[in-house]
Amino acid sequence: MTGEHNTKNLIRGAARRLFAEHGYNGVSMREIAQHVGKQPGGIYNHFPNKQAILVDLMQENLRRAHEAVIATIDDRLSPAERLECFVRSHVLHNIENPDDIFIAYMELRSLEPEGATHVSKERNGYEAALRAILDDGAKSSVFKLSDPAIHARSILSMLGGVTVWFRQSGPQSSADVVECYVQAALQSVGAPYYPPIER
Amino acid sequence: MTGEHNTKNLIRGAARRLFAEHGYNGVSMREIAQHVGKQPGGIYNHFPNKQAILVDLMQENLRRAHEAVIATIDDRLSPAERLECFVRSHVLHNIENPDDIFIAYMELRSLEPEGATHVSKERNGYEAALRAILDDGAKSSVFKLSDPAIHARSILSMLGGVTVWFRQSGPQSSADVVECYVQAALQSVGAPYYPPIER
DNA sequence: TTTACAAATGAACGTTCATTCATGTCAATT
DNA sequence: AATTGACATGAATGAACGTTCATTTGTAAA
Question: pLDDT digits over A91-149, tens only?
């Protein structure tokens, strides 16, 4: 009736925190179980094995990233507006899900082949969406860039880095940080940046 | 007379490749030994333990990065010129040492406290050198950026990302890729970019 | 030729790993 | 009241882990 076991979500939460902190190979089933307050064997009532927990986290994260970023982009906007929208929602999503983003970035190599190809495909689609924006802007000369593919990857690296240092509990406001990355990304492709109106 | 044991360097090489591919915790001493064609126990003739191999690789890489990047920056140049010099040498260094860079980025968390603080300190100095350039450029208004510290980190993330996808054996030339990152970095802080003269 | 020492071996150590399983609990259905 | 089935337990499994060590090998100094 509640829709989802509570324990399964507790396991997800513990695994997310631990994987992000010590890496997939640096975390044991025993540690995960201990953080949930259960015995190691009990985890296997909810996930068939350790690898399945990682795949579950990654797929759910990709789904939500797609929903939070790609789905919000309006094709009728200009390339610069679309890029700004992409960067804004992407950085915000990263800030709000630092552990998931960190895991997605670091642990692709810990995935076994079948999971890896699926996640890679999903991720390439993500990169392609950004490249399409850059292609458009380059064609109409609002963007100044010599290679849209490389610029797309460089923007994604740049935005992904926010999870390494930023914590919502820290001194800076999320909005300020997002704004700063919007400026850096727009300018990096040679587009002008207009700060939001002071009020 | 040769100055360095051959086997010790072979161990370094195998560990570098394996750590970069599977992560520190995803590699066993047995695997390293096998790639060197020795028995596991023999590694302990050259390194006191597994952790020491990682520390050795990281320190050597930091030393060389410092030598290849920071040391080449001439304080008498303009901020834009210094930034270009920084980016150019940094990306080139990343391209030429992809495994070391990848390890340095991914495995900070695998370092035990004493090694971690030392490496962190070294890395902060690196970041500070870049931030100093941005501060200068912001003061004289040649750079347009709202937060030098964040822009410095975003540039380092951007440049670090090159190791994820670029391989020297691939279709693109190192020079073209470097040039592209120089453009992205300069523009990201609002500095103009002038492509090198065609000839 | 003897001595010395660094390097390599191969077996062993205790520990921890992911996973399995027989058993027990308890709330919901019959 | 009886039955079911999802969830939890706690002990056990064999494999793999980092590391140690007594011993052998090879080479260079004495």
Answer: 999 999 999 999 999 999 999 998 899 989 989 999 999 999 999 999 999 999 999 99
Cβ neighbors of A10 (< 8 A, separation 6 or more) are: A36
Per residue in B109-138, pLDDT (tens digit) is 999 998 899 989 989 999 999 999 999 999
Please give the structure tokens belonging to residue A75.
């094709």
**Furthest-apart CA atoms within chain B: distance in Å:** 60
For chain A positions 127-146, those within 8 Å of chain B (CB to CB) are 144-146
How big is chain A, counted in residues?
Answer: 199
Amino acid letter, residue A164: V
Assigned fold of A50-188? Tetracycline Repressor; domain 2 (1.10.357)
B147 has a chain A CB within 8 A of its CB? yes
Give, in Å, how far the C1' of D21 lies from the CA of A64.
Answer: 54
C strand bases under 7 Å from protein CB? 6-12, 16-22
Would you kindly state where each structural domain of chain B is located, as residue ranges?
1-47, 50-188
Question: What pLDDT does B81 receive?
Answer: 97
Here the tokens at position B184 are: 């992205």
Q: pTM here?
A: 0.93
Tokens representing residue B38 in the block? 């020795």
* Measured distance between the N- and C-terminal CA atoms of chain B, rounded to whole angstroms: 47
Q: CA-CA distance, B169 to B176, in Å (whole number)?
A: 14
Q: Which residues of chain A have pLDDT under 50?
A: 1-3
Q: What is the CATH number of domain B1-47?
A: 1.10.10.60
| One-letter identity of residue B135 | D
Q: Does A180 touch chain B (CB under 8 A)?
A: yes
Query: Above 60 in pLDDT, residue B89?
Result: yes
Mutation for A interface: B99, B143, B153, B194, most A CBs within 10 A: B153
- How far apart are the C-alpha atoms of A187 and A183, rounded to whole Å? 6
